[in-house]
Model the fold of this input.
Amino acid sequence: MKLKSGFTQVSHCMTLVRKHDYEHYLCTLLLPKPVQPVVFALRSYNIEVALIKDTVSEVAIGKMKLTFWRDAINTIFKKGSNDKLPDHPVVNLLAQAVKECNLNKIWLSRLLDARETDLTRTSYHQTKELEDYCENTSSSLFYLTLEALGIKDVHSDHVASHIGKAQGIVTLLRAAGYYRSKRQVLIPLDILMRHGSSQEEFLRGEATPSLINSTYDLASLANAHLLKAISLADKIPKGAAARVFLPAVATRSFLEDLERVDFNPYSERLRLRRPSLPMTLLWKAFRNKYY
Done:
């Protein structure tokens, strides 16, 4: 598996992932070298569409930008088409990855659909809505990575689903301070109501018992998905499959850090990057473990 890609395209994608998704940058470097450009293309695609919501002032503009990506994906998968792809490093590298690895369009499209729905989202009413969003975004990227490695295994798919959900929930918790600055609270409303909390309480940023309990519930849900993924570790194929799921190490580390600050999602300590993470990931990769 060797993409006929120019150095500039791969370098662009690597730089993009390193800037916006450092943990996945480290994890991708620990995958087999031939597949690394593919995964950097996939992660770059995710970053490009994820950033749209935060970089546009109007929903209509966001939808126009997503249309660019939808048209690009459709052109990539249009067999026998003479349509020219846009001159974009991520699009071009992604096109090569799709062709070389026979990637499934459904996961790329599902991720795009989820991002489009997210353009107008201001809250989640039910926890399942959040889990579905995480499945459609984070889990889809794991499914694509498994495809890139040629891994077709039902247990690996189950692990991908659970780790994707755990990672998506943790991403939301990590961004609690950012969302607060935008006057948004994405903790599902059913969890807030269970503890007598409210969005206004989260916007005030006070570590009240109901805020802490709501955060604890969401963190516990992420941890439950991680534990389920770990319980399947002995059933997935030996070798590269475990490395696909290395991002679970960072997800678990954040949950441990969150517990240390008593589940206060606004604690400044959660902003600190663990300096030991690169070595931890290397050690886990060496042992073919993701927990």
About this structure: Residues 209-231 form the longest helix (23 residues). The chain has two domains: 1-105, 121-291.
